[in-house]
Structures are given as structure tokens and as C-alpha cells.
Amino acid sequence: MARNNDYEKIVSELRQLGYTIATMESCTGGSVASAITNVSGSSEVLKFSAVTYGTDFKIKFGVNPRTIEKHTVFSTQVSKEMAKCISRYADSNIGIGVTGNLSLNTTDGSRGGEVCISIYNRETKEFITKVVNVKSPNREKSKEAIVEFIAKDLIKLLAIDNYQK
């Protein structure tokens, strides 16, 4: 899992700013929310977390089905919509969307080992997006790597003084 002090720094900074965060995760199965809740005091900042492993629940939370049809469920366009929709649903300042395929060998035509991450900043209406290629056949290790990538991006986002108190 990501170094605990990374998420301690994130939770601390969010608390100081009075900001909240929400996650909509698919292939990570709630690993990002778990990393946040491993920090004491995280209940003040984590507003809501959804594991939307199935496409139908992504749509129920607001992801446009046409976006999924056009770009596939494993795309940055869908991760961006996931991040924005969960931020809106939870009324949080930051939304995180994660979708992808952790399986390295696929038979459905999807790009195996490719995970799309988006972090939405409601205050600036900006996104940080990233496509991560996982290389481990071990799903747990792949999830840990993704959680670490997200921590680094959140630290960058919070270190930049984009937020207005």
C-alpha cells in the first residue's frame, strides 16, 4: 500500500483547507478509499466512496452511457466523468475516478494492464488524468501501485496553491 505518511499528509492538508474528497473506483475495488480511511481523522474529509465495478453503476452515478459506448469503459474520458460525478454526488471538493483492466492477458479486446485515473478539482474545474500501465500479474500489487500514483498526484495538487480558503 502507499506509504501511510503520504495519505496522512493528504488528509491533514484537506482538513486544514476544510476540503473533502470522494472516490468512484472500479478496478481498484475501494483501495484508494481504504488508504484514506487508514488515517485517523479521515472521517472529516472522506465524504463518500463507491466501488462501481459494473458499468451499470457507473451510469447510475451519472457517467454518460454514450461516453462509455464511444470510448469504452476503460478510458480516461470515463475516469474523468467518474471523478466529476462522484464529486457532484458527494458535494466534495475533490473527486477521484479509477477505471481500467488489471488483467494483463485479455480476450475481450481491451488493453490489459491499463488503468485510467482522474482527479477532479471542483474549485478550479480542472482534472489531473493519467494512464498507468501495471506490469504485475498480482492484482493486489497492481492496486497498491495505483494507490501510490494517486497519492503523488494528490500531493502535487494540494501543494499547488490552487485552492481558495
Structural account:
The chain has one domain (4-159): CinA-like (Maf protein, Alpha-Beta Complex), CATH 3.90.950.20. The chain contains six helices and five strands. Helices cover 42% and strands 21% of the residues. The chain has 165 residues and is α/β, with parallel strands linked by helices. Helix 1 packs parallel to helix 6 (139-159). Strand 4 and strand 5 (126-133) form a beta hairpin.
What labels would you give this structure?
165 residues; alpha/beta; Maf protein; five-stranded mixed β-sheet; 6 helices; 5 strands; disordered C terminus
Helix-strand blueprint:
Elements: H1 4-17, E1 21-25, H2 31-37, E2 46-51, H3 55-60, H4 65-71, H5 76-90, E3 94-101, E4 114-121, E5 126-133, H6 139-159
Parallel strand pairs: 1-2, 1-3
Antiparallel strand pairs: 3-4, 4-5
Helix pairs in contact: 1-6
Quaternary class: single chain
**Number of spatially distinct domains:** 1
Helix/strand order, N-terminal first: HEHEHHHEEEH
What is the strand tally?
Answer: 5
Question: Averaging pLDDT over every residue, what do you get?
Answer: 90
Look at the helices and sheets and give the structural class: alpha/beta
Short description:
By secondary structure, the chain is of the alpha/beta class.
